[in-house]
Design a protein that fits this description.
- The complex is a heterodimer of chains A (about 270) and B (about 600).
- Chain A is α/β, with parallel strands linked by helices and about 270 residues long.
- Chain A is built from eight helices and eleven strands.
- In chain B, strands 18-15-17-16-20-21-19 form a seven-stranded antiparallel beta sheet, with helices on both faces. In chain B, strands 1, 2, 3, 4 and 5 form a five-stranded antiparallel beta sheet that branches. A five-stranded antiparallel beta sheet of chain B has the order 10-11-14-12-13.
- The chains are: A alpha/beta (about 270), B alpha+beta (about 600).
- The structure holds flavin-adenine dinucleotide (FAD).
- The site of flavin-adenine dinucleotide has 37 residues of chain B, from strand 8, helix 8, strand 14 and helix 17.
- The site of flavin-adenine dinucleotide (FAD) has 37 residues of chain B, from strand 8, helix 8, strand 14 and helix 17.
Chain lengths: ~270, ~600
């Protein structure tokens, strides 16, 4: 089995986002900010490795973005992926919806699936935490005309090449079966699917020796016969980025009576 | 309630006897009479007159304990005092918690809930010490602290300063019915100087809040300990807390620039802290100035660092913060012998050099308890622990064959350089087989989880049973040896008692936290305590170590001071205490050994 896992490098989820209000749509500060693998992509990698451990599979991690994406790929390789493909964008191309958007990424990924050949499964995060679009997986399935399941909380592979996926919905969970087809199954991963492992030191060292193919976006576009504008020009325009209004500081009250008095004063209770 | 038999007592010339009541006048705030012979209480009619009584049984605590340094007997607060405190505090309803019942307090709460509220202040973090204070005062500014102390000083009322109450030696817990002065109501952070990086705040500011405050402004608060969510900077300074950043950023004697302290007689001193008046008010339109260098006179602030509330109360602190390092790396490493831990340390010094910011050790027993009791619901952390413990799956005997775990952190200013240093360091360790396994945090969450493991040692081991805690300084090469030696000795001398020795701490400072646990047995037993203490102290002192590296003395180790300090040193310490606190009201019965 061959599993493709696209992974995205985003601002570390534990870091406070800083917005420079003078920069308009480009306000989110990226320089000197800690970047890490999108947590949902990490879950996708973990799931791919688990499937690999159950059967046999080759896990290929793909990352589209600036030079430092190789670090993100190394993490995936240290966790257990077999090789990496890095489609390198120029340093000033932003991946957080400002320049690259899900349409462009999905178009590229479709090309990668075809270029690789023999891909049985594409596991993606359900969304990336920078733009929260949640569109790449579904767009890719649409472009490939492939079976898809989103928000997976459990994935099982049948002997016939089908995938049974438990998915999270607003009203509970739903189990669907992706029939074997000529196209790879597209599954996007939700939070409860698994708990990603910590890469061990020996595996981090081994990962250094695993192959990563780096190819510039321009070359890749050419090789895949795509149009650079189609991939790089955003379909939607970001008008403005701003910080959420600061939460008003709370006020401490001494006892219930005081609380009631305050609430009355503000007209919140009669 | 203790019973007092009122008796004539006339050993001081100023005392005037009248029947069974002895009324006294106090001149110049001086009162001299024999140690441990009685108790004075104010005459309700006048605060200048006193009733002196002598206990009916020799088991009165004052007689039993005597009071170090001072030569007078203290009393607990009365309703009369309560009325006075009500009159001097600006928000008495919030600032006073008491089980003494006068009309005003009856209006507030039922006596049960008041008693319940007091428990938190009377009980220490370890659960080992419990006081019976009936009054907690929570002043809101320096001038209130000053009025409270002056009154207690004049009236010989014992007080216990309390910060976050996380101290591990019972220092913030009353021995008897002293008044607890909690600084939780004083937590303003005044700001951080953009040029010098000196941060100034009230002593009651919580350490974790200081971290966020400094971080948001591009600075690092140079002290970090596991109790940061509750402990206060005033408590930290008073215990001279060490913590994981000690060797990188230095101790509080180096980072504390200025202090505001209130002496027991109510005087306020500003020690390298300018533009603050005697009421603790900052002069308008001026910023608080503390200088890095100040060689004008005796540097008194150092006396308050580590004084554990025995010579005055700290009300404001200035502390120098370095610029916030922008890159941080954390690795968790597994070694199969202590000898390899030493090699890791040496390699770290060579490869990581100045960017190394923590080098922490945890032994196998500790980590097993963290695995068993920690990480409620956090699967990712549990998984890491599981993988760590798996590294050497079978539990080996004897203990010295069990794996040891290290948390190594770097903090620097260039993420590419720092990562490459970490990489070289780890590659060397793996190639030389100095470590058998390890993990390098890939993102902030993993980094935080690694620290959570380290910070869970204390609470998780405490859940396993009664913990006999020791915090010692020993030569680095014997870091693990002391615990093993103690364990071996105890397995002979107390072979019926099931004991597990857990060790963690700051290896590079030679500071080991040795925790002997009786699993499943939660009651502290004094016979066991004595045996363990004797074994640990012997083993440490034999190596010329210190029996309290960073937790202080409190009421737990004050007696041991007599064993380790020379007579001259003890004498001068007692004189210092007497100079600042002539009535001995500050944290009585702690810190210094009892006078014999
Ligand atoms: C989980 C955990 C981890 C810990 N880790 C470490 C560690 O790594 N390193 C370390 O050194 N300690 C450690 N400690 C011990 C403890 O947290 C420190 O001693 C801390 O500095 C105490 O601060 P506090 O505010 O809780 O003080 P408290 O416990 O309230 O008081 C401690 C002493 O200081 C006095 N005091 C408090 N505030 C004042 C004041 N404003 N003026 C005068 N005297 C005052 C008290 O009377 C008492 O004697 C740990 C404790 C816990 C529970």
């Amino acid at each position: 089995m061959k599993i493709l896992v696209p992974i995205k490098r985003v601002i570390d989820y534990a870091i406070k986002i800083r917005v420079d209000p003078t920069k308009g749509a480009q306000g989110v500060q990226l320089s000197n900010v800690k970047m890490s693998m999108n947590p949902f992509c990490e879950i996708a990698i973990e799931e791919a490795i688990r499937l690999k451990e159950k059967t046999t599979a080759e896990v290929v991690a793909v990352s589209i973005g600036p030079k430092q994406c190789t670090e993100t790929l190394r993490t995936a390789l240290a966790m257990g992926a077999d090789r990496g493909i890095h489609i390198e964008t120029k340093a000033d191309v932003r991946g957080d919806y400002i320049d690259m958007q899900p349409w462009g990424i999905a178009t590229l990924l479709k090309g990668v699936v075809e270029r690789e050949g023999g891909v049985d499964l594409v596991l993606l995060g359900k969304q990336s935490i920078d733009s929260d679009c949640g569109q790449t997986g579904t767009l890719l399935a649409g472009l490939l005309n492939a079976p898809q399941a989103t928000f997976a909380s459990k994935v099982d592979r049948g002997d016939d090449g089908s995938f049974t996926v438990e998915r999270e919905t607003d009203s509970g969970t739903e189990v669907i079966k992706l029939k074997p087809s000529a196209m790879p199954a597209i599954i996007t991963c939700d939070l409860r699917l698994n708990t990603p492992r910590y890469p061990t030191m020996p595996n981090i060292m081994k990962a250094k020796k695993k192959p990563v193919q780096t190819i510039s976006l321009e070359d890749m576009v050419k090789e895949l016969g795509l149009n650079l504008d189609e991939v790089l020009t955003p379909k939607n325009e970001v008008i403005e980025v701003y910080e959420p209004p600061p939460r008003k500081e709370g006020e401490m009250v001494g006892d219930v009576m005081e609380l009631l008095a305050k609430l009355k004063e503000k007209g919140l209770v009669a | 309630m203790r019973q007092f038999q009122q008796k004539l007592f006339c050993s001081v010339p100023e005392w005037v006897a009248s029947g069974t009541r002895t009324l006294a006048r106090i001149g110049n705030n001086q009162l001299h009479y024999q140690v441990g012979k009685g108790r004075i209480a104010p005459d309700r009619g006048s605060c200048r007159r006193w009733i002196l009584s002598v206990p009916s049984s020799p088991s009165s605590h004052h007689e039993r304990d005597g009071i170090q340094c001072g030569s007078q007997v203290l009393r607990g607060p009365t309703l009369h005092d309560l009325a006075h405190f009500r009159s001097i505090l600006s928000r008495p309803d919030r600032s006073i918690i008491t089980t003494l019942t006068d009309e005003a307090s009856q209006r507030q709460l039922s006596s049960d809930s008041r008693a319940e509220e007091l428990v938190r202040y009377n009980q220490d973090w370890t659960g080992e010490y419990r006081g019976s204070s009936s009054l907690v005062l929570r002043p809101t500014n320096t001038s209130e602290v000053s009025s409270i102390l002056r009154y207690c000083h004049e009236n010989f009322i014992g007080v216990v300063p309390q910060g976050g109450n996380t101290g591990l030696c019972g220092g913030a817990t009353p021995l008897h019915d002293e008044v607890i002065i909690s600084l939780e109501g004083m937590n303003t952070i005044y700001g951080i100087d953009g040029q010098s990086g000196i941060l100034t705040c009230d002593a009651g500011a919580i350490l974790e809040n200081l971290h966020s405050f400094a971080n948001e402004r591009g600075y690092l608060f140079p002290l970090d300990i596991g109790a940061k969510g509750s402990c206060q900077i005033g408590g930290n300074v008073s215990t001279n807390a060490g913590g994981q950043y000690f060797f990188r950023f230095g101790g509080l004697h180096g980072t504390v620039m200025g202090l505001e302290v209130v002496l027991p007689d109510g005087r306020v001193m500003h020690l390298n802290m300018e533009n603050v008046d005697d009421y603790g008010t900052i002069q308008q339109s001026k910023r608080i100035a503390s200088h890095r260098k100040d060689n004008t006179g005796y540097d008194l602030k150092h006396l308050f660092i580590g004084a554990e509330g025995t010579i005055g109360m700290i009300t404001k602190v200035s502390i120098a913060c370095p610029a916030l390092p922008t890159s941080k790396n954390v690795s968790l490493l597994v070694c199969d012998s202590y000898c390899n831990v030493l090699t890791v340390l040496k390699t770290a010094k060579e490869e990581l050099g100045e960017i190394m910011s923590a080098f922490e050790l945890m032994d196998y027993n500790t980590l097993s308890f963290v695995f068993a009791h920690g990480f409620g619901g956090n699967e990712s952390g549990s998984r890491l622990l599981h993988d760590l413990l798996q590294s050497e799956s079978s539990i080996q005997e004897p203990e010295r064959l069990r794996p040891l775990y290290l948390l190594v952190e770097t903090q620097g200013s260039n993420s590419v350089d720092d990562a490459s240093k970490m990489d070289t360091f780890l590659t060397r360790l793996l190639d030389s087989e100095t470590i058998i396994n390890g993990f390098l945090a890939q993102d902030e969450r993993q980094l935080k989880e690694m620290w959570t493991i380290r910070e869970s040692c204390n609470p998780c081991v405490a859940q396993a049973g009664c913990v006999y805690k020791f915090d010692v300084s020993i030569p680095i090469e014997d870091y693990m040896e002391v615990a093993w030696e103690v364990k071996k000795e105890l397995s002979v001398s107390m072979k019926d008692v099931d004991l597990i020795a857990c060790v963690w701490g700051h290896v590079n400072d030679g500071n080991a936290h040795i925790n002997i646990v009786t699993p499943g047995r939660f009651k502290k037993e004094s016979a066991i305590d004595k045996n363990i203490e004797a074994a640990v102290f012997d083993s440490v002192l034999k190596r010329s170590g210190s029996i309290s590296a960073e937790h202080g003395l409190g009421q737990k180790k004050n007696e041991a001071l007599g064993r380790i300090k020379g007579e001259n040193v003890l004498d001068v310490m007692a004189q210092i205490k007497g100079l600042f606190d002539p009535h001995g009201i500050m944290n009585p019965g702690k810190y210094l050994p009892k006078k014999t």
